[in-house]
Specification:
The protein is α/β, with parallel strands linked by helices and 395 residues long. The protein contains 14 helices and 12 strands. It binds 3-methyl-2-oxobutanoic acid and zinc ion.
């Protein structure tokens, strides 16, 4: 069926900024900081907010407890597939405002079984189902994650997926824990799991970014049947990070012509959420980061500035205000052209005739060749000089 004629399917956004995100070096948050960000994530409209790993520390336990009690959003708590972890997660979720989720995980790849768990496939299958069954005694919403699922044999992964669904899991997550997958391969694996489970559970994905493919892999998974994406604001997370929330959401929104999916995210809150996270953890994003980077809506090249000034969509595929960025920026530097300079001169309230503008542009270009960017103050003083030379005062 052509995508345009299909009713868009909802893709659930599972935010793990407060759990996987804060596991990244330099990204930890204390409880008040987690609460502040959690309120913002609820405003953003995420479907599930993973607030921590209660067995890991008292701080994580209290963060899950406070977020669950104070923030009007479905909160998830992480637990290994052991009674101690699951009971601790259940305790932390007591009193949560919205029906909470216990997120049970256990590795399923041969490499993890052999070197980390030292268990057989049969033992892991049993432990996974037992963990889910125990979690279901505490909450109605249980997710199971097959850690290193991306490197697990499809047959075994499907066996585990069916067993945890039979034990009561309503979401089955197939993480690419080490960011090893490539879109075609990972998408095909997700397709196999989704077909095997049918409507019995939501298939979820959780992609790490070790090869820079976390968003591409998550997208391929959605195209193959996944209906939950686990992601983080600014893409923070273990090692090279997780799938970036703002990127996957904006891919689905911007390319709705080819991707018949919706999310509940209020995209105008994406940039404010990114800014708040940066303020809290003190770790910013690179300037060229898609959607929320400082240069994501900045134009310096003359040809681009000229096109943009004639019609924004010549060089912008996203309206900056739709993601909460106040406006695009025209950066004046050595690549800039006359058109942008003329607009800036007028924005600065200066009035120059054609000849003066030409002279200003010559001086501007010479100065721009010597440094990284030209400030408005520098433009004012260059303009002052030009007008002085022409024997007139400027406004
Ligand atoms: O990367 C991973 O496998 C995880 C799981 C705990 C979901 O973070
Ligand atoms: Zn992870």
């Amino acid at each position: 069926m052509p995508s345009s004629s299909r009713t868009p399917d909802k893709v659930h956004i599972f935010d793990t900024t407060l759990r996987d995100g804060e596991q990244a070096p330099g990204c930890s948050m204390n409880i008040p900081e987690k609460l502040r960000l959690a309120h913002k994530l609820a405003d953003l409209g995420v479907d599930v907010l993973e607030a921590g790993f209660p067995i890991a520390s008292v701080g994580d336990f209290e963060a899950v407890q406070k977020v669950g009690r104070e923030v009007p959003v479905r909160v998830a708590a992480l637990a290994r597939s052991t009674a101690l972890d699951i009971e601790r997660a259940a305790r932390a979720l007591e009193g949560a405002q919205k029906a909470p989720r216990i997120h049970v995980f256990l590795a399923t790849s041969d490499i993890h079984l052999k070197y980390k768990l030292k268990k057989t496939r049969e033992q892991v299958l049993e432990d996974a189902a037992a963990g889910v069954a125990l979690a279901r005694k505490y909450v109605g919403d249980v997710e199971f994650s097959a850690e290193d699922g991306g490197r697990t044999s499809a047959d075994y992964l499907i066996q585990v997926a069916k067993a945890v669904v039979a034990a009561g899991a309503s979401t089955v997550n197939v993480p690419d824990t080490v960011g090893y997958g490539i879109p075609e391969e990972y998408g095909a694996l997700i397709g196999q799991v989704a077909r095997a489970l049918g409507p019995s559970a939501i298939v979820s994905v959780h992609c790490h970014n070790d090869l820079g493919l976390a968003v591409a892999n998550s997208l391929a998974a959605v195209q193959n049947g996944a209906r939950q994406v686990e992601c983080t604001v600014n893409g923070i997370g273990e090692r090279a990070g997780n799938c970036s929330l703002e990127e996957i959401v904006m891919v689905l929104k911007t390319r709705a012509d080819r991707l018949p999916f919706t999310t509940g995210v209020k995209t105008e809150q994406l940039f404010p959420a990114s800014q708040l996270l940066t303020e809290i953890i003190g770790v910013g994003v690179q300037p060229n980061k898609a959607i929320v980077g400082r240069n994501a809506f900045a134009h310096e090249a003359g040809i681009h500035q000229d096109g943009y000034l004639k019609e924004r969509t010549t060089y912008e595929i996203i309206d900056p205000q739709s993601v909460g960025v106040p406006e695009s920026r025209l950066v004046l530097g050595k690549h800039s052209g006359r058109h942008a300079l003329k607009v800036r001169v007028s924005d600065l309230g200066l009035s120059l005739d054609k000849e003066q503008l030409d002279e200003l542009y010559t001086r501007f270009s010479a100065l721009a060749d010597t440094k990284k960017g030209i400030t408005d103050q520098e433009i004012r003083s260059l303009a002052q000089d030009v007008v002085g030379n022409f024997g007139r005062k400027i406004a």
